[in-house]
Amino acid sequence: MTEFSLRPNDDHLQIQSWIHEFAVDVMRPVAHEWDEREEFPWPVVQEAARNGLYSFDFAANASMDPTGLTYPIAAEELFWGDAGMGLSIFGSGLAATGIAGTGTPEQVAEWAPQCFGTADDVKLGAFCVSEPDAGSDVSSLRTRAVYDQATGEWVLNGTKAWITNGGIADIHVVVAAVDPELRGRGQASFVVPPGTKGLSMGQKYKKHGIRASHTAEVVLDEVRVPGHCLLGGKEKLDAKLARAREAGHSGQKQPAMSTFEMTRPTVAAQAVGIARAAFEYSLEYAKERTTFGKSIAMHQAIGFKLADMAMEIDAARLLVWRAAWLSRNGGLSRGEGSMSKLKAGEVAVWVTEQAIQILGGYGYTREYPVERWHRDAKIYTIFEGTSEIQRLVIARALTGLRVE
Ligand SMILES: Cc1cc2nc3c(=O)[nH]c(=O)nc-3n(C[C@H](O)[C@H](O)[C@H](O)COP(=O)(O)OP(=O)(O)OC[C@H]3O[C@@H](n4cnc5c(N)ncnc54)[C@H](O)[C@@H]3O)c2cc1C
């Protein structure tokens, strides 16, 4: 087991400064523009691919760090640059993680690199779980996967909602019900390869924040994929279904409440990055802005606000690092991943609101970035499990009871 340390090692520091430079030089100058355009920021993602940040190699190396800290450190720095563009760069990693989570080594080797493409030919991945009637309650997915014995293919039908990179991705990883009666335990994940007939983009959502990130419906209409696109393989699925039928409905876990426990620290770190951006900006502003003959930072009301903002951000980061380390070293047991996501999401919303308050009227205008950071922060109490769902996960882990 790797020692837990609050001191980033040389590799962490190098990655941190490399991404910070990218955030300062490439992201910050165009963050406002892409937020206003509400379009996928291709030039920024292509630049990230050219310098190696957007690549399968980076994602694979980061996920193998024995301390677990590379991803949170990278995410905080990237999302300090901009959250909408940050998610455009990190979004494909969700699909790759979905493949790595249930795929065989051969499937991971075949499909995960295709979620990123190459520096000259950038590709995207999308991870499609949520549906119009199944967000938190992923055990009630309606998208069906039916096996066609005659051709050895799987046939997928349904509509996915709120999908990051949905419909513009090259690789879609789709979670579907194989046996709806078994609910969460009757589901399987499938890779839908590029250019597969029947997969199309539905509506593209116009959002409150992270507007440079593409979010859309994915419609699956008689989508046929070869047998080897079932992640984990048919034998493993059949055995899982047989076990689930034997056990009946007793002790059934909702996958939404446990599967993402290991990826939550990275999502939480994104929220810490947004909060830190807003804190740093409002700190500088408070030192320069004067009212009643002194800088507003010298008014106790503002000074105390800054103190609380710094303390909350540090508290969130400590929870994130703890959870990241535990998740890499096999020690998650008390809902620590959810604690980090819950705390960081709520801190980001609160800190960015305080930042608007510190900037006063200027903070409320689009001329200054704090209102954008506030809009961006809000998603962190909603996606990858809402704040309420995180509390359920933590309460269940602590009590061992089915808290509802
Ligand atoms: C910008 C964006 C990007 C996204 N990207 C993806 C993606 O790439 N892939 C993907 O699969 N999904 C994605 N999602 C979907 C996201 O994960 C869901 O929106 C989220 O899980 C919440 O589901 P819902 O919207 O159906 O809300 P609901 O589940 O309907 O929840 C509504 C409210 O009820 C509360 N609630 C629900 N159940 C309970 C309960 N048991 N106890 C207490 N309170 C409860 C919730 O906390 C929430 O406040 C994205 C969403 C957004 C907005």
UniProtKB/TrEMBL annotation:
InterPro entries with a match to the protein in the record: Acyl-CoA_DH_CS, Acyl-CoA_Oxase/DH_mid-dom, Acyl-CoA_Oxase/DH_mid-dom_sf, AcylCo_DH-like_C, AcylCo_DH/oxidase_C, AcylCoA_DH/ox_N, AcylCoA_DH/ox_N_sf, AcylCoA_DH/oxidase_NM_dom_sf
Cofactor: FAD
Boundaries of every Acyl-CoA dehydrogenase/oxidase N-terminal domain copy: 10-114
Keywords carried by this UniProt record: FAD, Flavoprotein, Oxidoreductase
Domain spans labelled Acyl-CoA oxidase/dehydrogenase middle: 126-223
Keyword Flavoprotein appears in the UniProt entry: yes
Pfam families reported in the protein's UniProt record: Acyl-CoA_dh_1, Acyl-CoA_dh_M, Acyl-CoA_dh_N
GO MF assignments: acyl-CoA dehydrogenase activity; flavin adenine dinucleotide binding
SUPFAM superfamilies (UniProt xref): Acyl-CoA dehydrogenase C-terminal domain-like (SSF47203), Acyl-CoA dehydrogenase NM domain-like (SSF56645)
The keyword Cytoplasm is annotated on this UniProt entry: no
Domain Acyl-CoA dehydrogenase/oxidase C-terminal, chain residue ranges per copy: 256-398
Record's signal peptide: none
Family: Belongs to the acyl-CoA dehydrogenase family.
Protein name listed in UniProt: Unannotated protein
Origin species: freshwater metagenome
Phylogenetic classification of the source organism: unclassified sequences, metagenomes, ecological metagenomes
